[in-house]
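Design job #97: recover the sequence.
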């Protein structure tokens, strides 16, 4: 499977659907095929088991079979909590002045970016952290899509006046893979990837249209070859013509399927900094059964592997590295290990293969491996 199977006509047909709001009786309304939910009503319904079951069913249905996106208005009612967290973000940004912060889908440095904002805010101001993340609506939406025991990460994005839109894209996992790597994954893995994470953005400022709230293409998550398609010129052009934007109020929360085509919009204002806390929620199932020190394993076999590298064929080389090294770029510390030269940082497997090809000595490789491990640590 590869990009040669793309069909812009089939994609356009999917994206031309109209959502029937009557299928979602707990929604308070709909705008541009995006369901709107009232945060006050959701909080009032928590005491009812049937309500909790029904709302989770609605959220999951719209994310998969529906338009792929919904908004909880007034997700945060006490906006002073948002403002206090904004002060925490400002303090973090002040500490990180001059630090390189790559962006997967925009020019590095174009926006204000805080990687690993969840951990940094917890360490800097535990009181504000608790006030913010005790919000049960974040749990409600996350469990509706992923079930219990999920793991949360967050990244702050501040689009400055004049900041340009991101390229349209899909998100983590397969949205962060290069085209050649995508073709190695079977179609069922492409479909599985859409169900391993949930994307969200909490509005930390008001977001009028001119400030560039997220561009969204409803129903695009239903296109099975979408991880190939978002890079294609015809699909980009379709996105540019048909993507929608919704103004958000401070404290609103936008949730969407990671496979939905989307992009941060351009900030056309002269003096308004649009700020969002981006939430990426991961399924509990994306973990191995045992905890292994693959750095120690790789260091241990490197001398013997280097001595015999030239005797191995390409399949044998790939097999031994795949079965020993970490071949996936995530999770990592994106402050120290940013995606400066592509969508994902260098992996341990790539580092080891390059060292073997270049004939790097054992001592030098040991240093490279230690540096690689250090920059990926939180």
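Job complete. Output follows.
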């Amino acid at each position: 499977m590869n990009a040669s199977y793309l069909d812009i006509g089939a994609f356009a047909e999917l994206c031309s659907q109209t959502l029937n709001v009557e299928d979602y009786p707990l929604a308070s309304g709909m705008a541009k095929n995006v369901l709107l939910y009232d945060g006050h009503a959701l909080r009032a319904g928590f005491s009812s088991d049937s309500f909790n079951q029904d709302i989770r069913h609605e959220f999951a249905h719209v994310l998969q079979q529906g338009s792929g996106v919904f908004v909880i208005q007034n997700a945060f009612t006490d906006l002073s909590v948002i403002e206090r967290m904004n002060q925490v973000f400002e303090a973090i940004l002040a500490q990180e002045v001059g630090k390189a912060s790559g962006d997967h889908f925009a020019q590095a440095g174009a926006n204000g970016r805080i990687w690993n904002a969840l951990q940094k805010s917890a360490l800097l101001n535990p009181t504000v952290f608790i006030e913010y993340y005790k919000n049960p609506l974040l749990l409600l939406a996350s469990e509706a899509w992923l079930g219990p025991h999920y793991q949360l990460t967050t990244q702050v994005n501040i689009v400055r006046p004049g900041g340009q839109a991101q390229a349209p894209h899909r998100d983590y996992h397969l949205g962060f893979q290069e085209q050649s790597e995508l073709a190695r994954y079977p179609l069922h893995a492409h479909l599985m990837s859409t169900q391993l994470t949930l994307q969200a953005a909490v509005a930390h400022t008001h977001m009028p249209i001119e400030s560039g709230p997220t561009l969204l293409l409803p129903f695009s998550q239903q296109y099975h070859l979408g991880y190939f398609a978002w890079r294609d010129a015809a699909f980009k052009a379709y996105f540019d013509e048909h993507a929608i934007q919704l103004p958000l109020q401070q404290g609103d929360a936008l949730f969407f399927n990671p496979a939905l085509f989307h992009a941060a919009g351009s900030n056309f204002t002269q003096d308004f900094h649009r700020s969002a806390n981006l939430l990426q929620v991961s399924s509990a199932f994306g973990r191995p059964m045992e905890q292994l020190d693959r750095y120690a394993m790789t260091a241990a076999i490197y001398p013997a592997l280097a001595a015999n590298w030239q005797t191995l064929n390409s399949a044998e080389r790939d097999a031994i590295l795949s079965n020993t090294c970490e071949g996936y770029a995530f999770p990592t510390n994106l402050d120290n290990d940013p995606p400066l030269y592509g969508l994902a940082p260098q992996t341990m497997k790539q580092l080891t293969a390059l060292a073997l090809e270049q004939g790097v000595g054992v001592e030098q490789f040991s240093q490279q491996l230690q540096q690689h491990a250090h920059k990926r640590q939180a």
